[in-house]
What we know:
2% strand, 55% helix, two-stranded antiparallel sheet
Amino acid sequence: MTPKDFVRSITPDEKQPDGLGLDQFKKIDAKRFHEIESRGSEFGMLGECGLISFADYMFLLTVLSTPEKHFEIAFRLFDLNGDGEVSYEEFQQVTEVILQQTATGQRHRDRKTTGNTLDKPFTNTSLTTYFFGRDLDRKLTTDEFSTFQRKLRESLLKMEFDRFNPEDGKITERNLGQYLLVYAELPKVRSNKMLKRVKKKFSEDEQGVTFKEFMDLQKFLRSISDVDTALSFYHVAGAAIDPGTLKHVAKMVAGVQLTDRVVDIVFTLFDENDDGRLSHKEFVSVVKHRVQRGLDKPKELGFAKIISAMWKCAKKTKPNIPYFSNDS
C-alpha cells in the first residue's frame, strides 16, 4: 500500500478512492510513485520505492500506538552492556515486548488464515535493513530510534494536514475541529453540533490554522496525560479552566505556546454551555483517542507487564542446556 492508503486505513469512516470497490486496487509505477509521493518523507525509506508491506504496516502501527517512553524503557532493559545501543537480535526482543502490550498487535498475531503470521514480528521489514544494514550487523541507539519515531509522526501529521486541502498554507477552523473529533467516538448528532458551533463562530472571521500551529497543538496533545494531571489540580483547587489556564498549562507541561486562535477553536468545540470554561474530563477523553488514532487504549506499560513479556521472549529463545542430576 501507499502512505496515503496507510493514513486512510487508520482513519474512521474513510472509504476506498473513487472508482474502486472492496478488494480492488489501483496499479502504479513504483519508481514514479517514489519520486513523486515519498520524496522527503520518512515513508520514502520503506520497502519497494516507499510502498508499505504488511510487516512494515504492523511495525508502523506499533510505533504510532506506543508512547516514546515505553520504547525507551524496553531499549534500556535489553541494552545489557549499558552502551545505549541494541543489536538486531535485541531489537527483535524489544519490538516483540512492545507488540504484546498493544491491542493492535494482539489482534494481528498469528493470523494463519490470512498468511500474515507475526510469531517473528519484524523479521522481514525494510526498516530492519534501514536500521541495521543489509547484513544486520549495525547497532541502533535509543536516540536514533526516537528521532525516527518523531520524524515518522511529523510525516504523518503533514499528510493529515494536507488532506484538508489547505489554501495559502492554512486549513479552516472547522477542519481543525474535524481533526480533533475524528476518533472521538461521539454520537454523530453531537459531533455535528460541535462542528456547527465552530463554523458559526468563525464564519465571518476565518483566518485559518497554519501547519506550525497544527504541529504545536499536536505536541501539546501528546502530553495529554500530564495535561490531565495539571488540569485536575486546577479543578480540585476550584479554579476555572479558562483559555488563559489552558495556554499556561500547554507552556509549562508541553513547552509549546498555543496561539489564541487555536485555543479559541478548542473552547468553541468543547465549551457546551458557552460559559468560557472547559469540561476538562471530556476534553481529555476525546484527546486521548485522538492521540492514539484509535489504535490502542491509552495505558501504562507497567513493570510487571514488561517482565512478563520479557520472560515469554526468554523462553522462546533459551538455548537447550542439558540437565545433569546429582545422581549421575
